[in-house]
Amino acid sequence: MTYNRERAADLTMALMYLSIHDGTRVWKGYEWDVLNFLHERGLISDPRSKSKSVVLTEEGEARSKEMFAKYLAVAA
């Protein structure tokens, strides 16, 4: 199945916002193609490590928060 990688990356960033822990670490249980795409864009650390999480860059943290607000947040 083909998919829109850009949109998948945005939705993944929104979901990553839900799992932020230890500052800017997030669980990396997402599609490898999308994780590699996010790394290439400078939004997360290299996902090819033994760690079960990756680190959001400063830009990645901002993008994650923005995508969460856009797709998942409930208006107050």
How would you explain this protein's 3D organization?
The protein is mainly alpha-helical and 76 residues long. It has one domain. The protein is 49% helix and 8% strand. It contains three helices and two strands, in the order H-E-H-E-H. The chain has helices spanning 5-18, 32-40, 58-71; strands at 25-27, 53-55. It has a two-stranded antiparallel ribbon. The longest helix has 14 residues, at 5-18.
What's the layout of helices and strands?
Layout: H1 5-18, E1 25-27, H2 32-40, E2 53-55, H3 58-71
Attribute tags:
two-stranded antiparallel ribbon, 2 strands, 8% strand, globular
Summarize the structure.
The protein is mainly α and 76 residues long. 49% of the residues lie in helices and 8% in strands.
Instruction: Assign a percent range to the helix content.
Output: 40-55%
Low-confidence sequence ranges = none
Percent of residues in beta strands? 5-15%
Q: Quick one: biggest sheet?
A: 2 strands, antiparallel
Q: How confident is the prediction overall: mean pLDDT?
A: 95
Q: Tell me the domain tally.
A: 1
Q: Supply Rg.
A: 12 Å
Shape, principal axes of CA atoms: globular
The number of helices is: 3
The SS-based structural class is: mainly alpha
What is the assembly state of the chains in this entry? single chain
Give the neighbour order of strands across the main sheet.
1-2
Can you write the helix and strand succession as a string? HEHEH
N- to C-terminal distance: 37 Å
Task: Report the count of strand segments.
Answer: 2
